[in-house]
Amino acid sequence: MATDLGQYARVAHGYLTYPSLEGDIGPWMRQNGREVLVWSLNNYLGLANWPEVRAADARAAAQYGLASPMGSRMLTGNSQAHEALEQALADFMQKEDTFLLNYGYQGCASAIDALTDRHDVIVYDQQSHACIVDGMRMSTAQRFGFRHNDPAHLEHRLGQARAIVERTGGGILIITEGVFGMSGDLGALDGVVALKRRFNARLLVDDAHGFGVLGENGRGAGEHFGVQDDIDVLFGTFAKAMAGFGAFICGDKKLIQFLKYNMRSQIYAKSLCQPMVEGALTRLALMRQHPELRQRLWQIAHRLQAGLRALGFDLGTTQSPVTPVYLSGSPEEAKALTLHLRHEHNIFVSVVVYPAVDKGTILIRLMPTAAHTEEDVQCTLDAFAEVKRHMEEGRYDQALTSGGAVV
Question: Among 19, 77, 85, 232, which one is most buried in terms of CB atoms within 10 A?
Fold first, then answer.
């Protein structure tokens, strides 16, 4: 298709898309045999290579193997460890109950499908993650998008939704995110909650990037805004702050019991494997015992973002460690820029182009972690100072037309 990301495979495959990073997960890894400083991993707290985490993963893998438990949770895939992790997460998140999910993307999508039917209306932030969009595609509920973090437009959409459910007898589900993973800004949960109460709606929050990062204790965006109790369906993942895979949903006991018997992605798919369950228990304990990891993450993020802004780069409205750098240019210029960063400065960043962002926009997304150092930040700022000069001089465009390298 002319509008999908595959149209750029000729200039991007193996480099901007499907690159290979090798070595221990951390700030410095190997790409095409070159040591590179990596700003593209969701290892927020740096737990991926903590000795306690590696030991827990290895111990569980040796004891159980990757096949255990064999089967879905409902039939043969349950264990005391699964239930212990659910209880630990419920306690930490201050919710009545929790349901483990084998994967985050399909789990979030499947929850939306399970929670809504043709009598209901979904009102969602238009910048919501693809898993939310795909969940709504599966659902038979009507849906209205509201402009990103726009309370007036949300109120208007809720008025439309209320008029529909008064006829159908259904309910209204508001969906937004705690942290928007591309732009880094926070969902305006305080304003959303006020409207939720007024319109007697329920609220689902995808807090994949907020869990372990935001709030006094790392509970996420709900804790940050003081509205944790008002989030009816709280989704989190192990793939970001906890450096693993799998996910969970928190809520009241009635909700969780319903999901256990109605989420098709969990009923008809293999349970979360035992090593990840055991490893997640260790990760959660470390996250609670070491608040300095979260503090370190924010120190690195603030230093990086302040430095980039001082150089004149546009970071949009990020309020989280997610650090987007917005530039103008073509996908081909994005590749030239990336070649420059990787070959001249040994810096690996993720670059996003149309149709994932507006045409003519290049988005470089940097993901700070607690494992990065002040020296990592400084050498990155030095490299971006050169990037800015090269862009102002049109060198990336020149390199493309001449077929040569950026010098």
Answer: 85
Closest CA to 48 of 79, 22, 25: 25
Interatomic CA distance for residues 358 and 363, integer angstroms: 10
Q: Could you tell me which of 102, 70, 66 has the C-alpha nearest to residue 85?
A: 102
Rounded Cα–Cα distance for residues 392 and 165 (Å): 54
* Among 309, 353, 303, 346, CA closest to 328: 353
CB 271 within 8 A of CB 72: yes
pTM of the model: 0.93
How many residues in total does the chain contain? Answer: 407
Q: Could you tell me the end-to-end alpha-carbon distance of the chain, in angstroms, rounded to an integer?
A: 35
Bridge-based pairing of strands 361-366 and 350-352 is antiparallel
Report CA torsion sign: 300, 302, 307, 313.
positive
Query: Where does 139-252 have alpha helices with state H?
Result: 151-168, 189-198, 221-225
- Beta-carbon-side half-sphere exposure of residue 150 (alpha carbons within 13 Å): 15
* Sequence-distant (≥ 6) Cβ neighbours of residue 347 within 8 angstroms: 36, 37, 39, 341, 379, 380, 383
Which domains are assigned to the chain? 5-45+291-402 (3.90.1150.10), 51-289 (3.40.640.10)
The CA distances from residue 376 to 38, 123, 154, 157, 358, in Å, are 9, 41, 41, 45, 30
**Helix/strand/coil percentages in the chain, nearest 5:** 45, 15, 40
**299: CB partners within 8 A, 6+ apart:** none
Strands (DSSP E) found in 28-106? 28-31, 34-38, 97-101
Dump pLDDT digits (tens) for 299-356. 999 999 999 999 999 999 999 999 999 998 888 888 888 889 999 999 999 888 877 7
Please tell me whether residue 112 adopts helix, strand or coil conformation: helix
- Which one-letter DSSP state was computed for residue 186? B
Using CA atoms, how far residue 63 sits from 59, 84, 278, 383, in Å, is 6, 18, 11, 46
Tens digit of each residue's pLDDT (9 = 90 or more) over 167-224: 999 999 999 999 999 999 999 999 999 999 999 999 999 999 999 999 999 999 999 9
- CA 263 to CA 249: how far, in whole Å? 11
